Predict the structure.
Amino acid sequence: MIYDITFYFTKKYLRRGDRTIDQMVQAARSGKQNIAEGNQAAATSGETEIKLTNVEKASLEELLDDYEDYLRVRKLQQWGNQHPRYEKMRQYARSEQIKNEYAEKIQQMNDEEIANLCITLIHQAMYMLHKLLITMQDRFVKEGGIRELMFQSRMNYRKKRNTPNTPEP
């Protein structure tokens, strides 16, 4: 959703030729792609999974800065928790219905509303990524990565091979 909304937003509200368009779209794309690559890497490397998840988080932080800058330089409001529409937007961003209707909804929103929706979605994504990183790092510390597992397997193999009366595997 963040990628789709950002793509729409940049095409509609930024001038053609503005480098910010490419930066925002690439940051949104990078966030989306790195989570997919991190999940694929998880099968072979917990370390790579953690690195790619951190890259995703950094990409989303960059995109967040761009949306905040957009609002600030245009003297539009960023909806903090004191803003009357903040809680409603937060609840909508959490809801199941957003998945089915965001593409149509954003066409009815102005730039301030779309930017605040994306800021809300980015905050929620970063919160989940933070929790995910803690879990991944904890698992990595407890279980190690593929290198540690391979080393342990090699050591077990050598130990069995060098023990008298132990049949070859």
Remarks:
- Residues 2-143 form one domain.
- Residues 8 and 107 are 9 Å apart (CA to CA).
- The two ends are 51 Å apart (CA to CA).
- Helices lie at 2-13, 19-41, 46-73, 86-94, 97-105, 111-143, 146-162.
